[in-house]
Amino acid sequence: MTDVPDPRLATLTAPLDSSGTGKRELAATLFKPEVWWAERYQWLKDRGYELRPRYRPGWTPSWRGTKKQFYQCEDGHCFVDTNLADAVCVKYGKFVMLKKIWAAVHPYEAEIGQFLTSGSLATHPSNHCIPILEVLQDPEEEDRLILVMPLLKMFWDPFFDTVGEVVEFCRQLFEGLKFMHDNRVAHRDCSYLNIMMDAESMFIGGWHPVEHVKKRDFSGEVSYYTRTKRPPKYYFIDFGLSRRYDPSTPLSEPVEPVIRGGDKTVPEHQDRKCPPQNPFRADIYCVGNVIKQAILQGTRGVEFLVPLIDSMTAADPLMRPSADDVVDQFQTILQGLGSWTLRSRIIHTEDGAVVNAFLATAHWYRRIGHVLTRRPPLPVPPS
Known about the structure:
By secondary structure, the chain is α+β, with helices and mostly antiparallel strands. It folds into 2 domains: 85 residues, no CATH class; 220 residues, Transferase(Phosphotransferase) domain 1 (Transferase(Phosphotransferase), domain 1, Orthogonal Bundle). The chain has 12 helices and 14 strands. The chain has a 5-stranded antiparallel β-sheet. β4 and β5 form a beta hairpin. The longest helix has 20 residues. It is globular, with a radius of gyration of 22 Å.
């Protein structure tokens, strides 16, 4: 079973009335799923993870007694996905994400996540699976686990500035997919929302985990560097639907009953009566489709990726390249790209002439700075 979203969440996201009084008071009450986290505040703190002020015992909303609206305050926000909560790792002062899972519903999530990020695999240079820092057994519910992971950001926010930044994103994604498949793990849900980035070095003072445009303390809008100046590392997250096979299993062999993840467009999943399908080929499609939807549609400058992405998203699963082939073909593409191309600006087709002129000027200013400081056009993060 899963938590049913509290209907009051929809109320909070609706337009405010003239006074906003009702919503101020509604936001001052924890939603039912939030109470689960609040009840574990001290237990988590004893284990080194401190939740945000909203979940502290005796919490008093910071907007109470002021003219502020709840949405103007840090503690007026909560995750829509109430299986998630952010916290601070007290020992290291780092922000982490906590995710509660049901072992009976997703019996392999913790196991596969730990397998991919432990031992020699943890430091493998091609590993782009979100690290599982710790697995906590809930003190009250035997079937409930809490995964502790780094706090990450959606990969498209902010959007890519240069061709080189897009190319590096693709490189990391492809090598990460190959790494999983080499270790006989099929992700089965490589969709738009399950690819994130460690952007800690990019953002000055961090970002709020719910309202990403705000600083952590809500003191203003976030400030950040480009990916070229502070390269992020990209990660696959959420192994709830994943499966792991014997190392000797050929990638073409496994078949699994169709489970529709975040990407509902996988061709072989369209027929609800379709027989079991190869999950590795579906992974190839999903990763290709992320790049097609998030980057290729509505932009100019990376058309050289189209043939590879078209092959990855082929309607016939047998016509898609393997992860090994994707990496090899991508390397061939990369070898043909010069520094001038990699430093070029990603252009949004919907932007008008005036906007493009402004963005081009700002881009050239940054570009000259990158050249003078000898920043590479392919922003590879430090290992």
